[in-house]
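Notes from the 1:1 (GR / supervisor)

We went over the backlog. Supervisor wanted to see one worked example end to end before approving the batch request, so GR pasted a single chain during the call. The sequence is below; no edits were made to it. Supervisor asked that the structure be written out right there so they could see what the output format looks like.
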Amino acid sequence: MSFEVGTKVVGKVSGITDFGAFVDLGDKKTGLVHISEVSDGFIKDINEVLNVGDEVTVRVLSIGGDGKIALSIRKASDKPKRENKQFERKGQSGQNVSAMPGKARLTTAKKPEVKKKDFDSLLAGFLKESDERLTSLKRNTEGKRGGRGGRRS
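Structure output shown during the call:
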């Protein structure tokens, strides 16, 4: 059986390591499902999700020149792609407040027009911002040098 990138294959988990699970695809072929490709959420211990002998459906991500096959359980599931929806609620000042998890930002009702800037003005803005950051960094680290003894010159 020949495997192509993007195809779905059913296999059995043949081994589990800290970094992922090896899946026997049949025809004397084995691929690796990295721990980040097992589930959409964070997995601290892969043994909580998979066991040796489990049958899993995987998608072939890549096939290396040395015969290594990279697999994904997460991408094999046929879930419709979710859109990032932003729910808005009114803040204390009457402005709309974006309610995305972990982020609270004030947004205005109208989107400002994006002005097309030329390269020179973008570069000048970058240099100014960079200079301000360097000045701030130098100011904050100047008194922290040394240890024993006086100031170095």
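Supervisor's comment: The mean pLDDT is 77.
Batch request approved.
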